[in-house]
DNA polymerase alpha subunit B
Amino acid sequence: MNQITTENLKSELDLFALTYKDDSALDKMVELCMCNRLEVNEMVGEWMAYSTNKKGLVITVENLEQFEHEGSQKRALTTPEHPRSKRGAALLPSPGLLLSPASFSHSVTPSQKYNQRGGKGEVVVTFGAVQGTRWVGRKAGESVQVELLDGPEDSLRCSYKYMFQRLRDVRNVLTQKIEELGESLKSHFQIEDFCPASLPAQDSITVLGQVCCDSNGKLNAQSVLLEAGPEQGGQQVPVDLSELKEYSLFPGQVVVMEGMNTTGRKLMVSKLYERTNSTSLTVAEPVNVLVACGPYAPSDSLTFDPLLDLINVIVRDRPDVCILLGPFVDSKHEQIEKAQVTEPFEAIFFRCVQSILDGTKSVGCHLVFVPSQRDTHHHPIYPQPPFTLPNHLEDQRVTLVPDPCTLLIDGVTFGLTSTDILFHMGAEEISCGTGSDRFSRILKHMLTQRSYYPLYPPVEEVNMDYEKFEIFAQMPLTPDILIIPSELRYFVKDVVGCVCVNPGRLTKGQVGGTYSRLLIQHSASEDGKRVSPCLAAQVVKI
């Protein structure tokens, strides 16, 4: 394919005296050439045939989007009995062909609500210095280093003991977490020693333990217990929070409390201790990162139009790294729940990956795939092993990571999880007088507890393997950026020096959702203070 540029396109349009509205229309036409693998003269010929039938349209972004949309509708409904015309075949991008619903579903009807959505490309959240920011990646040939911070992930591919775990082993994991966080807090706040929580004492004491509930119901201010570690007696003590002006607690939280326990029956808490840790890695060049989370198809159709639209965004913006979180083959999709697909779930996933690889080949961006508990074809267990791909899909641009994981992108640390811990903890947390919003409180808990899933016990839908949890679900350090998609509203927040991003989901039921883009560059610490590497971030409607 010859080089496709706006100059070449202008010359071809001038040759046929075709008019265009502005430069954005030319950019859109160049994008269509790349996505559909068409030469400039082929694209102009396609447009002339289309616009002639429409009584001579001016080339605008809106008209080009309609041109692209109508072409995709014709592609999806093609059958062996009604073969595709040569013109239609030329316009068909490889991703669209692979994701044609006729290949794996009885229903080929596109989602009307998704196709009629408004606000395409609208920016709904901004963070940092977005004024004048160019959302494009580095020049071609400038590589970005992407690697897992924790090293080899192969051990997550081995057998799990879920449903065969001994209670003693689970208890040991939880005890280890209490002791590790306790030692860190003791050192940071220069605490001399922890006292047994259940022994009567006339003076104020400092105790270490884990928050739990006195029943199977929801935690509230009157039902809080502190369960001490083995070194502090291992007993559960009721806690009185009435003297605290503010607090935020959840089941499973490791805390250090200071207070009085004159009778040995109840701890009157007067102070809570918490802290975070930090990192001081550096990076020279700014990096453009795109983040999207599934589902990648609307709930009423398996056309995967949102995924194809995302591929077009990647081609247009040319990010350095794309972080794509599941679900890719959503277990909650209407047609999957009703067993209306005609192809194995894993084969549909491979089609998605092949489409992404083919569609972004001209960009050369690095692709990071993160599994989800909702991926029908994958193991629904936490922590979740990375995807596996057949040999023909192996690519140097692809990094397969587990859920959760800590990733290094040119030295900037990213914490990634596709599990909706915001939703899970939001239903269990209790608070009083904190003055902060619920999202910030939960995110701060995750960072101070150094865990991607600090809630205990977990919600029923999370199949926890505590042996793997101890090794792979902890935060080795506070990440620079935490990617934490949720059903709850999208946001970008700075929480204790960590930029936390909920990109939303690419589809919300039958309508379009959102994705996020970030421009990052790690700076050296100033006077020992953590400096955010996130220069700018946005959440954008697909």
Residues 113-158+278-419+462-541 form a domain with the Purple Acid Phosphatase; chain A, domain 2 fold (CATH 3.60.21.60). The radius of gyration is 26 Å. The first strand starts at residue 123 and ends at 128. The chain has three domains: 6-70, 113-158+278-419+462-541, 167-273.
